[in-house]
Design goal:
Elements: H1 2-6, E1 11-16, H2 38-48, E2 53-59
Parallel strand pairs: 1-2
C-alpha cells in the first residue's frame, strides 16, 4: 500500500532510530521495547531501495548509549 502511494516520486527517507526495538538499536536516547525488528526495518529499506531516493537521514542516534557499535 505504501509503495503504491509513493509511486515514482523522488524520496527523502528519514529513519528515526528510536522506532527500532532497543535490543536491535540501543544507541538512542529513548529505549523502545517492542519497536520494529531488524527484519522489519530491513524489509522496508529493501522496498525503498528500488525507488528514487534523493536523501537519507538517521535521527535520534546517540552513540553514548550504544553497546559495542550495535546500532
Amino acid at each position: 500500500e505504501m509503495m503504491t502511494w509513493i509511486g515514482e516520486s523522488p524520496l527523502h527517507v528519514s529513519l528515526d532510530i528510536d522506532a527500532i526495538d532497543m535490543s536491535e538499536a540501543p544507541g538512542t536516547g529513548i529505549k523502545n521495547r517492542g519497536g520494529f525488528s531488524y527484519r522489519e526495518i530491513r524489509y522496508v529499506c529493501d522496498l525503498l531501495a528500488t525507488r528514487d531516493i534523493r536523501a537519507i537521514d538517521l535521527v535520534e542516534v546517540n552513540p553514548m548509549n550504544d553497546v559495542q557499535n550495535k546500532t
